[in-house]
Fold this sequence. Notes:
Blueprint: H1 5-11, E1 18-21, E2 25-29, E3 37-43, H2 56-75, E4 83-86, H3 90-93, E5 102-106
The protein binds adenosine monophosphate.
Amino acid sequence: xxxxxxxxxxxxxxxxxxxxxTEDAVAFRDLNPQAPVHILVIPTRHITTMFDAxxxxxxxxxxxxxxxxxxxxxREGLEPGGYRLVINTAKDGGQSVFHVHVHLLGGRAMAxxxx
Length: 115
Ligand code: AMP
């Protein structure tokens, strides 16, 4: 989508610190990190929210994002300490960018419950 900032990052039209890429997913550092490691993993193909993820294509795309997040977490030294994967969804989920993304947060102990 032309007006989607994350589609533009995936296409290389907007700069980002890319830390991983597969055919179907891109990982880059969050501009406003909430933990020592804060990386976003997005599907290359636009999916607006998890509301749209109940399809075979989206299942593969989101699965690829999780897989890339796990690989990046390992490279970032977050095993065996651990980390958190989060997908904020729509208004009540706190989503602000409407292109599905997995937050990979690590490098400190996480609190629960989340805010
Ligand atoms: P969410 O609130 O779950 O939609 O998360 C959106 C995230 O995208 C926030 O953590 C922002 O800091 C991050 N973000 C927004 N624009 C950019 C950008 N151009 N590059 C990297 N991260 C971004």
